[in-house]
Write a structure and sequence with these properties.
This protein is an alpha+beta fold and about 350 residues long. Helices cover about 30% and strands about 15% of the residues.
């Protein structure tokens, strides 16, 4: 499962619609939605597509009620909740979503606490944005609003649009939203550390646009290649070169140390830049971790993909493993990729 690597896939789809003249980045999102979205403290300020893609809309990481929240905000973790907490409130939210996930309720003025800051506040040129100060990485912007834009504009479900316009053209034959599409012996078993040792009693599903996608290294490499190669790979053009350049940016300067082993220095349209000169996106969901990253190199870009089972818990065991082993593996992969790109190694 690739978690938030879904976000650059969603962005790629939005930008395809932009290229076709069906969406404009600076348009008010309300132009494309059957309901109205406004920050209650700034009712006259439009929330634009670009703000949502760049995580500068003022929306939080997750809106309460969208998922059954636990310490990692990667719900729904119903099986874990049942086993460990008997969280009846979370169960009610999950099984009776109309009581807690209503679009009208979620974005109404009485829910002003959902919003963190003025949408895309003006800052002096070169000023760095920090979390909660003009910038907030937001699942809500993508899985609640941008996916709905794709469906409203294309007239297709999110699953159908992504499959027909990204996965199928790239021959990503082993990429699917449904676990039933795979033999069970091909499914990676997720593990989580809840502070009492590793467990694999984790959910195996999720929202289609929120970590539910399953894939493998070969398929995901096709998606990374279109971003390394200005929108095309194997004779298939998914985006125009200038569109890829716009997506990658960066358009927002950041100084965030939430992305070990590197500081995040900037954000494009759901595309991150790091202080080791790499760029791309990571994903974490229910015992799984994914990374798609590349470096420009000297005219020969080279990239790496990491798919692994991984605990998202903030326990000492996890952080020790992350700092001691993951950093080393990531750096080693980049060194190998650089040698291959330069022709020094097959």
């Amino acid at each position: 499962m690739i978690g938030s690597v879904d976000k650059p896939i969603i962005t790629t789809a939005i930008l395809q619609l932009v290229e076709r003249g069906l969406v404009r980045l600076d348009d008010d999102i309300n132009k494309y939605l059957p309901f109205s979205v406004r920050h209650p403290d700034y009712p006259d300020k439009p929330i634009t597509i670009k703000m949502l893609l760049a995580h500068t809309s003022g929306l939080p990481h997750d809106v309460p009620g969208i998922t059954t929240d636990d310490f990692s905000n990667n719900g729904p973790w119903i099986r874990w909740l049942l086993k460990h907490e008997f969280n009846l409130s979370a169960l009610r939210k999950y099984f009776f979503p109309q009581t807690d996930r209503s679009i009208d309720r979620k974005f109404s003025p009485e829910n002003a606490d959902f919003w963190l800051f003025e949408p895309d506040p003006a800052v002096p040129t070169g000023e760095i944005k920090h979390i909660g100060d003009g910038y907030q990485y937001s699942n809500t912007a993508f899985y609640t609003l941008l996916v709905r834009v794709i469906e409203e504009v294309s007239g297709q479900s999110y699953v159908k649009y992504i499959s027909e316009n990204i996965y199928e053209p790239l021959n990503m034959e082993n990429t699917s939203f449904e676990i039933s599409d795979y033999p069970r012996d091909q499914i990676a078993i997720p593990y989580e550390d809840f502070g009492e040792g590793l467990e694999n009693d984790l959910p195996i599903t999720g929202m289609a646009a929120s970590g539910k996608t399953r894939t493998n290294i070969i398929d995901l490499a096709q998606f990374l290649l279109i971003h390394m190669n200005k929108g095309s790979t194997g004779g298939v053009q998914i985006l125009k070169p200038e569109t890829v350049e716009l997506m990658h940016g960066p358009i927002t300067s950041l100084d965030i140390n939430d992305f070990p082993p590197s500081h995040c220095t900037g954000c494009g349209l759901s595309w991150f830049h790091f202080d080791d000169s790499s760029q791309g996106h990571s994903g974490f969901v229910a015992g799984n971790c994914a990374d798609i990253l590349y470096k420009e190199g000297d005219g020969n870009p080279y990239g790496i993909i990491i798919l692994m089972t991984y605990s998202g818990a903030k326990t000492p065991l996890v952080w020790e493993w992350w700092e001691k082993y993951f950093v080393e593996v990531r750096e080693l992969l980049f060194k190998e990729a650089e040698l291959i790109a330069s022709g020094q190694q097959k």
